[in-house]
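<amino_acid_chain>
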Amino acid sequence: MQSSVNKSSFFGFEEGWGNRSYFAYYGQFQRESTAIVGIEVFFLILLWIWGVVGNVLVIIVVISNKGMRKSNTNLFIVNLSVSDILFTMGNPLIATTRVTESWIFGRVLCGLMPLLEFVCGYVSIWTMTFISIDRFRVIVGHRSRKFKLGTVIGMVAFTWISGILFFIPLAIYFQIREFPFKDGTATLCTLVWPYVSKTFNVSYPYTAVGISLFFIVPLVIIVHNYSRILHFLWKKRQKLNKSLRTSSEIGSFSTISRNGTNNVNGETLRRRTVSDCEASRDQRDLNVVRFLVIIVVAFIVSWTPIFITLSLVVYDGNMEVPTFSSQIFILTASITFLNACINPIIYGTFNQNFRRGFKKIGQSLKLCKSMRDIDTSIRCSSTENHHPSKDGNHDSGIVLSNVNAEGQLHADMHQEEKF
């Protein structure tokens, strides 16, 4: 099969389609600068390590804290972290392909990697959607209306199953194509949709439905829920302020009244106490909503470029001379990978319980290192001194003190905290 190359696209013949172009999503040929390749590889590997380590820490914080495990929001966040970890798992393969130019990992991984990436993104946005629904039910509705554990597990399972079912065509139609190139063969992992007719391209309706289910529908639900929550909290605060002003007026009137002064002042104090409790609870709810909105905004900012890029790839593929570069695709994909990395930072910055959990993990790691250092020094001391003390326990105080410290730290990690 004869072909010509345009750095990121090859031309060839496909049954039904006739002559057509094939876009090299992960590879690029005839690159002029090796420095750019090095930068791409560095950031892809950095984002992979950062995403895995950060999200593993998030999971550890939630699992190790009984109080945080009781929160539906935290259980959904664990699901988010799992999807973020899996989402970055393809980075080493992409980094390798940027170096080798050709795809070297075979047909199975060629289909599996885009499937995993899109399913994980789909799971993330719908998990955020279910979080907004849960927060709406709890804050705007009655607080006892939060989802039960079985319901949360069912919702999580639904996101994964529905995502796999919708994006399974990507695993089928991302295929290997080989082209003669220079003195060898160029191998591409590229998307080849089945041919239907000259007037109908299956990629158009699939992309439109995908963007709707992946982006538009969940965002409409999220915006609706959080706007309703914010409006509810604002109206509630207005009522509380009005109630406090009324109580103050009654209290002022009671100071000039001769009868019933103690009863009126007692009622005023009771109203203020209740109002303070409700105001504190509403402020906590507002902080949680603000924290969740930041996560959603970060997702939108990170994923919008890749959707625009994929739309341009589809459009460019129908041009007589494709000009779109896979370098832009990798850049926007890296921005998307960055979303998996910044989520743990958002948790630690805007949520006190996660911040405490991260600090405790850091303290635990420091303690483990110090205990290893002490153990090493004891071994060295024992080697140099072949005559231990009479009671043979000259180092027991050090060891016991560190064991006690570790036990205390372990107990602290299991104290109950709410989201």
